[in-house]
Amino acid sequence: MDILYLLIPLSVVLVFAILVGLWWAIDRGQFEDIESEGERILHEP
Hints:
Helix content is 76%, strand content 0%. It is mainly α.
């Protein structure tokens, strides 16, 4: 039971870190044009 006092706050911090990382990636435009990157490798010599 005592481990829950460690795991619950740790999981909340982990979820918060994941959400911050996702927000950062969206804010920096990482997901703006995902189709052209997949096609770029097909068209390079």
